[in-house]
Amino acid sequence: MKIATFNVNGVKTRLAHLLRWLEKEQPDVACLQELKALDEGFPAETLREAGYGALWKGQRSWNGVAILARGSQPVEIRRVLPGDEADDQSRYLEAAVDGLVVGCLYLPNGNPQPGPKFAYKLAWFERLIAHAAALADSEHPVLLCGDYNVVPTDFDIYNPRSWRKDALLQPESRACWERLLAQGWTDAIRHLHPDEPVYTFWDYFRQHWQRNAGLRIDHLLLNRRLAPALRAAGVDTWVRGEEKASDHAPTWVELELSRLSKPRRNRRA
């Protein structure tokens, strides 16, 4: 089973890129971020014709998340990250797909920092940590994936020197990431490629793509129940090389679910 996360940076603008990627790589589940479209503007029918059922939560001009499933329809679990009823930004979607719980997230960027946007980033991160605690210990296999807008370590960026003031590298952002992992999550890319520079994002400036001057900010985290199924992980970098591409490339894991033991039964039940 292949599950991928992809910040499309505008689902309508880059629909052709998305369709080419789906046709070539055929992920079983695809989590999308930064749709930049209202609900009614999401190309559900086109994706259905391509073989994918979809759940989505849009927002005008920015944000927006979606979960696609090849040959099936994701079953919605929640559309909002708990903890702040006043938060109206479309950044979290959770669904059941083929026996897995899949959380798709678009964590706030936080720039400029310090300031209200960075405070919102940290507050949102705290809500994610609180919600993820139960998922980490769940008897169900759970995958939390998306654009986390966090560069975990200096090894995850081509050159940290010019990014030191960016919200993605701040000690507070990295501390939240470490607290999340400490719940028992497996960072798939780093687990399988501990000594290899792996990037998922190259901005549009100073020929960063051409120079492979990238950052790793798109992550797939597996809970304890799912981690034994991890077989492979990587980045479809060819997508970033397309004309007028998103500044992100799809990042993915391959899972062998047959490796998972059966969940323990509740004797009282």
TrEMBL record:
Binding residues annotated for Mg(2+), in chain numbering: 7, 34, 147, 149, 247-248
Keyword Metal-binding listed: yes
Domain Endonuclease/exonuclease/phosphatase positions: 4-248
GO molecular function: double-stranded DNA 3'-5' DNA exonuclease activity; metal ion binding
UniProt-annotated site: Interaction with DNA substrate, residues: 248
Homology family: Belongs to the DNA repair enzymes AP/ExoA family.
Protein name (record): Exodeoxyribonuclease III
